[in-house]
């Protein structure tokens, strides 16, 4: 009686290697996307801190803001951000809308944070 050889054929081994390669490639791509998302989150969080700081500074002056635009810059987490405070009227003359637009170092818009400020007195 002839002994039958045991083991995998070359085709089976190649198919298994292809499956492993595809799984590793997908894992590397997912890890890269995760790292990119974490970096983006850090940038947007820092930009939001800049906007919140500008709006808080405006509130602390306790003055009714004038309509118009005012540029500003700030630094958070070692990055420089620029932007502008836009003050506009509302239907009620005792209130003003204030938008803090923040852009990254290259001038690309990142976010806008808005609030309403009332006239004191």
Concise account of the structure shown:
The chain is α+β, with helices and mostly antiparallel strands. The protein has one helix spanning 10-60, and strands at 68-76, 79-89, 95-103, 109-118.
What ranges have pLDDT less than 50 throughout 5 or more consecutive residues? none
**Mean pLDDT across residues:** 90
Spatial sequence of strands, sheet with the most strands: 1-2-3-4
Total of helices: 1
Element pattern in H and E:
HEEEE
What composes the largest sheet? Answer: 4 strands, antiparallel
How much strand?
25-35%
Distance between the termini: 107 Å
General shape: rod-shaped
Structural class: alpha+beta
Q: What would you report as the Rg, rounded to the nearest angstrom?
A: 28 Å
**Which percent range fits the helix content?**
40-55%
Q: Tally the beta strands.
A: 4
């Amino acid at each position: 009686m002839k002994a039958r050889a045991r083991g995998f054929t070359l085709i089976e081994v190649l198919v298994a290697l292809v499956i492993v390669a595809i799984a590793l490639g997908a894992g590397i791509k997912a890890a890269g996307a995760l790292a990119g998302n974490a970096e983006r989150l850090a940038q947007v969080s820092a930009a939001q801190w800049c906007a919140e700081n500008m709006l808080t500074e405006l509130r602390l002056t306790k003055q009714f803001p004038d309509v118009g635009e005012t540029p500003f810059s700030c630094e958070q987490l070692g990055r420089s951000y620029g932007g502008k405070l836009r003050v506009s009227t509302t239907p009620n003359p005792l209130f003003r809308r204030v938008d803090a637009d923040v852009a990254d170092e290259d001038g690309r818009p990142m976010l806008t944070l808005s609030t309403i400020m009332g006239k004191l007195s």
